[in-house]
Write a structure and sequence with these properties.
- There is one protein chain.
- By secondary structure, the protein is α/β, with parallel strands linked by helices.
- It has a single domain, classed as Ribonuclease H-like superfamily/Ribonuclease H (Nucleotidyltransferase, domain 5).
- It is about 40% helix and about 20% strand.
- It is built from 6 helices and 7 strands.
- A 5-stranded mixed beta sheet has the order 4-3-2-5-6.
- Strand 5, helix 2 and strand 6 form a beta-alpha-beta unit.
- The radius of gyration is 15 Å and the shape is globular.
- About 35% of the residues are buried.
């Protein structure tokens, strides 16, 4: 059984009311898999939208990617967490759109976000990511609307971690 957490995002059903402009740069964080987590962040690191999705197979994934690039206007960078061969599909599609891609593994962000005793325990790490994702969403002013599974929660957590890495030092 998949670990899941309850999280609801008022923007899950669309981007109505989302303030976007041509100048806004958006980061898309993707927890790779046919069951994938997606989280979009503003340039300042604020969570804009998050959701989980299921692609039945690689062909459907390939066909879905162009609409994902446009789901939230202004996507300027993609960060992928996970491995091949799905990463290659995302990377090639992003590069066709002219989008830079960074690929990380779970250990990259977990070592900086979780305590050492929490890092090696996958189910515990996913549970903690759900808790952190709720907090990040609350801080972004996102209100409840649908369930978010651990894939999306992890995309939220490592997406925010990556946004901090992109910020210039104070």
């Amino acid at each position: 059984m998949r670990n899941s957490c309850i999280f609801r995002c008022r923007m899950e059903r669309g981007c109505k009311g989302m303030k976007t402009s041509e100048q806004q740069k958006v980061l898309l964080a993707v927890d790779l898999g046919l069951r994938a987590g997606l989280a979009w962040f503003a340039e300042d690191g604020r969570l804009l939208r998050a959701r989980a999705t299921h692609f039945a197979n690689k062909t459907i994934l390939r066909r879905a990617l162009p609409s994902i690039w446009n789901e939230v206007p202004g996507v300027a960078h993609i960060v992928l967490e996970g491995g091949e061969p799905l990463a290659d599909i995302w990377r090639k599609s992003a590069e066709r759109q002219g989008l830079p891609v960074t690929q990380i593994c779970a250990e990259d962000w977990r070592k900086e976000v979780l305590l050492p005793s929490q890092q090696g325990d996958g189910p515990l790490a996913k549970s903690l990511a759900c808790r952190m994702a709720r907090s990040i969403a609350r801080d972004a002013g996102l209100a409840p609307a649908t369930e978010l599974v651990d894939d999306a929660a992890e995309a939220i957590v490592f997406g925010q971690w990556f946004c901090r890495k992109l910020q210039p030092p104070d």
